[in-house]
Amino acid sequence: xxxxxxxxxxxxxxxxxxxxxxxxxxxxxxxxxxxxxxxxxxxxxxxxxxxxxxxxxxxxxxxxxxxxxxxxxxxxxxxxxxxxxxxxxxxxxxxxxxxxxxxxxxxxxxxxxxxxxxxxxxxxxxxxxxxxxxxxxxxxxxxxxxxxxxxxxxxxxxxxxxxxxxxxxxxxxxxxxxxxxxxxxxxxxxxxxxxxxxxxxxxxxxxxxxxxxxxxxxxxxxxxxxxxxxxxxxxxxxxxxxxxxxxxxxxxxxxxxxxxxxxxxxxxxxxxxxxxxxxxxxxxxxxxxxxxxxxxxxxxxxxxxxxxxxxxxxxxxxxxxxxxxxxxxxxxxxxxxxxxxxxxxxxxxxxxxxxxxxxxxxxxxxxxxxxxxxxxxxxxxxxxxxxxxxxxxxxxxxxxxxxxxxxxxxxxxxxxxxxxxxxxxxxxxxxxxxxxxxxxxxxxxxxxxxxxxxxxxxxxxxxxxxxxxxxxxxxxxxxxxxxxxxxxxxxxxxxxxxxxxxxxxxxxxxxxxxxxxxxxxxxxxxxxxxxxxxxxxxxxxxxxxxxxxxxxxxxxxxxxxxxxxxxxxxxxxxxxxxxxxxxxxxxxxxxxxxxxxxxxxxxxxxxxxxxxxxxxxxxxxxxxxxxxxxxxxxxxxxxxxxxxxxxxxxxxxxxxxxxxxxxx
Length: 664
Hints:
By secondary structure, the protein is α/β, with parallel strands linked by helices. The protein is 46% helix and 12% strand.
């Protein structure tokens, strides 16, 4: 059975009716809404003077809904009253959206004092009843002119919108395509404007409808209490050529729904139909836009974010004291390194305590060299990669110590503006999962051209030509036409190639690829690995390949760094690492790889146990609880990273025994 969205149909039709009446109501009015009828009118044997005895609805065809207490045609006044009320509410909703979206985006992106101030404003606004606060604000302002009236109603209603936008922003900023935009050097304002804000467009119609419903009711309530919008705005809405502003709250001769309710209240016993008619108009206005909002919500399947209470902060555990490896200076082969990471320590503050994500990582990378960072999930691979281009939010992240020297400059000491020039231009980053790393709301051409235009200042036509060349470079057929396609129109392997094209768009000196083959089948993985090797040779750039699979990186890189628990376990050129393994963890990774080039059927040997809790590291070597070569010393002292052969370093007290152990 086909689902029918009844709220959308009913609300849409009613809302369209009121919009039509707002646009054309004054033209359809049969009489002048300002004219007072004092002449006697004969209805059968009865004589009525409308200004003395109002006519009831349907009593006379000339006045279908009767007259008001002043003898004016009620239908004509209602048709003239809908436009200014709806127009005022639209202006107020627009102001609420502008304030709420702006503060929501800012509060969702920035941390620290900015976020706390916005949260305080949201909490204060939501804690006060809207009607009471609106009355108090208008009364406090004294002479209530139209700008003050709109200000009061805007201040009372922006918070709900800001909460929604802030929650949405915070849920999106960790998405890979946002990190990808940061990685190519897009500034925060550009990310908020071009990446996060467009995702709100599908939701805005429903928000506008709900807000319009609420504001229509609030304006009617305030009008009923005497805070109506007055003659100036009503006259300006009816006649845009009129000039002058009078105070809000003055008795207005031009019709307005809130004022009409207020005027008829005192005479409700004598002429109750007037209140019924006007009340029904207000009710159906509010009902129409509320139903429209509900229908749009259902139609677009909007998932509303609901605030979740903060978890009770538990006692913070004392951070484990980890030894530095300042005595370790890698062999530089006589070259000046492109990248030198020295004793990097990165922590994250969480309600459960401090997460020791990276603890004393050190390595170098020379121009044109390729390096793999390998380890299980949670070993600190991705955090190390993010730290190199400073994509770690602080807070909650903290760079406790260390240096990241790129071409001799410490990136950790550079301000964000300078880092934006380095990201994408000097250092490119490819994120995991090509589908989520690409912005689904923008074409491939737009995403490719953004970094090019940002760093090179090229025209749109020149950037487009460069984008076509990049797609051709990475093997995307029919590149010119496919610039207009969206990410979902490409296969997984093609999306991964597009990420490489984006990373190479500004000829970076260093490319960091964070598990770019994850989720791809073996054939596509081989194609991506082959592509990287070809591009590295052709473009002569340095590459850091982050992976959990020693088998993938074997034929791809020059050296391997093995991480575990945020620490370097072993580091060596590829062949010595595979043939002369000196660390139990590296040995475990190798023994868990399937052997595809042998006829013998061999059982894979898994690594027993689980990685260490990053909140509470063991006292000695982090791998000791899972190590089959463990001795008492391993449980008491963290082994230093020591050289065991040229360019081969290990952090193990039992490295000689491990080296002699069988590798199969």
